[in-house]
Amino acid sequence: MQNKSIAQLAADLRLRTYSSVELTKHYLERIARLDPRLNSFVTVAADSALVAAERADQMLKSGEAGPLTGIPIAHKDIFCTQGIKTSCGSRMLDNFVAPYDATVVEKLAAAGAVVLGKTNMDEFAMGSSNETSFYGPVKNPWDETKVPGGSSGGSAAAVAARLCAVATGTDTGGSIRQPAALCGITGIKPTYGRCSRWGMIAFASSLDQAGVMARSAADAAFLLDEMAGFDSRDSTSANVPVPDYVDALDDGIKGLKIGLPKEYFGDGLDSRVAAVIQDAIKEYERLGAEIVEISLPNSPLSVPVYYVVAPAECSSNLARFDGVRYGHRCENPEDLEDLYKRSRAEGFGAEVQRRIMIGAYVLSAGYYDAYYLKAQKIRHLIADDFKRAFEQVDVIMGPTSPTTAFPIGDKMDDPVSMYLNDIYTIATNLAGLPGMSIPVAPVDGMPVGLQIIGNYFDEARLLNVAHQFQHATHWHQAAPAGFE
Amino acid sequence: MQWETVIGLEIHTQLATQSKIFSGAPIAFGAEPNTQACAIDLGLPGVLPVLNEQAVTFAVRFGKSIEAEIAPRSIFARKNYFYPDLPKGYQISQYELPVVGKGQVEIVLDDGTVKTIGVTRAHLEEDAGKSLHEDFQGFTGIDLNRAGTPLLEIVSEPDMRSPQEAVAYAKKIHQIVRYIGISDGNMQEGSFRMDANVSVRPVGQEAFGTRAEIKNVNSFRFLEKAIQFEVERQIDLIEGGGTVVQETRLYDADKDETRSMRTKEEANDYRYFPDPDLLPVEIDADFLARAIADLPELPDAKRARFQADYGLSEYDAGLLTASRELADYFETVARDSGEPKLAANWVSGELMAALNKTEVELDASPVSASMLAGLIRRIQDGTVSGKLAKQVFEGMWNGGGDADQVIESQGLKQITDTGAIEAMIDAIIAANPAQVEQYRSGKDKIFGFFVGQTMKQSGGKANPAQVNEILKRKLQR
CB under 8 Å, gap of 24 or more: what pairs does B384-390 form? Predict the structure, then answer.
């Protein structure tokens, strides 16, 4: 059951081959048995999942079911869920239960999806290895000594290990695509504003975007169909019509123009990763695509720009966690300042504190122009690079991450080396563009992701391009040993 | 040494919208603590602000009323600081690009001269909640009902040179925001709060002195006293060899003094930056046109028109345009009675006195504009004398019905029957031969005695013009 696509599961549910309750129990059993090895879930919501599954079975019986009705999914623990704890991977919110659902959660619930639980993540989505979580690191199901990537590492590991059919994630600088690459699954970060941010705990508001982590582009299309769309509760959500992503999957890609940015194939890219990426591109050529070399000259600046903009926004976004109204509060505060200092020092981990301090610094009087304002200017230049590129090509391809998954603990003492993991993914967030990662041939048994970047609101084409590759190859079907 | 005072004001006026500036929660005053705060106002994780369009409309209306530039594109920024009644750890405000740019208002000084005061800018922002330090035994209570209430912060140029000018300016702004209906201006409820930046400099010196900011003054009287105190404090300080430090001060009305709250060194670095949760506010020609479509006549224009159309003095016109309600009341009386000058006298005289004495608001006045107009018509057509009209007014005020009903029930109708007046006068002449003799021998002043006697005899009801005419005629003989 756990290897079936959403289309197959939906068909089986309709034919009553098994019920949603049976399917849900199957996944809950797998989680109970296998997740202790991975730590991919922070909260398993078995009771509410079974209630939702029963309701889905009713809908299936009465013929009101949609394609997601009864399908067991998992939400990254950054999405607020009414009645289920939303921790954001932080001690700060270890006791927090939101009184509302995020729009994405609400929409998927309305589509009949069954929520198995909430997945582990880097604390407040700050990290590329899932090691900054208050709930401990998540392990990569392909090699449990390695990281799954981050920050949506729990969702990536859970999907790869077949602990849920599909999961949500969020991506601020690569947090969907990089863990998707490292865990051998398909992840899509839509255009900024495509999915509502309402109820999604903010890390860097101008970069955050919700997306999907799935075993295939087709599965991702089913989920994105339900998640995307304008939301009046989010001023930055885009009022742009949502096409049918599933419908577009089967379009041919003959004549597709693929841009390869030379900056994405230079120093720092593992040569074995480069080789399997080149093989994947050759596969696209076989499928009728045309390859064009392009340049994104400002892309080397994207990591430094990101590490000004994202911390600046996070330093302000995380100010609300002050121990006053909810969340962690220190014991016996002496006075207000003590309450603030200790609650925040105890509630936030080291990486979060580091970014808050960087952010406060770059926004402070006398430094604002040199850092924040300058970063915003370069951000425009980075977006302009892409704009010029998309005058020539339909999609841009390259590696998602410079290496395969690295050992747990390897980079925790070297933040800059950790930050460079996102060197290929960050620019799309800065520009607001949609990006995907799909698995290609592994290196030494570890997954490698091919990144596909599209123009604004061109998610349908991204999913189509990814699906055509997956139609012709089998890499996306590989399951880690012990989790088949 | 001669000192010159320099004052600039920052006025926070609460906008009379239905709901908060970034959420749908209501903004009614006086509700139970924390009952008018939704998830957005509480700053829960994952919530997002959505701008209330009405607040922007109100800001635009204000901008147009002070001849200001309206920014076609303005930006909301975050002002970051920690305080328990600031749920998000930042206040959403406008910083670099406010919605209302440079404008100006005119104030009339005591000597009648008109002075123009520049308005630097006006920007939209959200209010914070309230910290309640009493009643919690060593703890502080937080009420977030007010959090997210829309404010328009109106910043003046340092154009005022005395506490009186500052008060005149503040009153002018208060008058405008109430006229155009964007704020109730209720000072007790905190809908109109003033911060004064005060400095002194030797007369003739161009550079400004170091300023102190007096925070959160909520009455015009306190504003005047607080500035007065602060000016004297600064002059004493400098003349005593000290220097003024840039700081924030609070005015204590009980002690009539200002005292230091925090100095510049303790001031926060607010780390302003554009709020990434909100799009820039774009104001196009359509929005602008809709926002100001029903903008009422402004006080200055109304005052000029009252002078021109009704022949009122500048003083009366100013008095009667103090509020839109009063001006409307006056215009109704003037129009319905056809006697603008009498209307002005009655509204600014009897009516205002009665309202002040009984502390009744104009909209609750027992004497409506049409009732007062009815009285004036009765004065005009001779039914009641000017003197007795005051009695009629009192009767109306005390619920005796309209002018005609009061005149009827209290028998205040003027006596215009020539025969009746003649009879009265004949009797008086007969009873006072000595006075008649004096008059006839040339002592004109005694005429008043006969008028007085006649009026007394008639209970004040005899028509004075007729009394005069008949007395003159009869006394001649």
Answer: B384/B412, B384/B413, B384/B414, B385/B414, B385/B460, B385/B461, B385/B463, B385/B464, B387/B460, B388/B412, B388/B414, B388/B460, B388/B461, B390/B350
Domains delineated in chain A: 6-256+392-477 (3.90.1300.10), 300-377 (no CATH)
Report the relative pairing of strands A114-119 and A72-76 from DSSP bridges.
Answer: parallel
Cβ-Cβ contacts under 8 Å between A and B: the total is 100
State chain B's maximal CA–CA distance in angstroms: 100
Q: Least CA distance to A81: which residue of chain B? A: B46
Using a CB–CB cutoff of 8 Å, tell me whether A326 touches chain B: yes
B78: contact with A, CB 8 A cutoff:
yes
What does the buried/exposed string (b/e) look like for A379-418 if buried means 16 or more CB atoms within 10 Å of the residue's CB?
A: beebbebbeebbeebbbbbbbbbbbbbbebebbbeebeeb
Give residue-wise pLDDT tens across range B253-262. 899 889 998 7
ipTM entry: 0.96
Contacts of A200 (CB under 8 A, 6+ apart): A78, A79, A80, A102, A104, A170, A208, A210, B46
Task: For residue B154, give the amino acid letter.
Answer: I
Which of chain B's residues have a Cβ under 8 Å away from the Cβ of A312?
273
Both tokens assigned to A444: 């030494």
pTM of the model: 0.91
In the CATH hierarchy, which fold is given to the domain comprising B418-476?
Arc Repressor Mutant, subunit A (1.10.10)
pLDDT digits (tens, 9 = 90+) for A45-94: 999 999 999 999 999 999 889 899 999 999 999 999 999 999 999 999 99
Q: Where in chain B are the domains?
A: 3-290, 299-410, 418-476
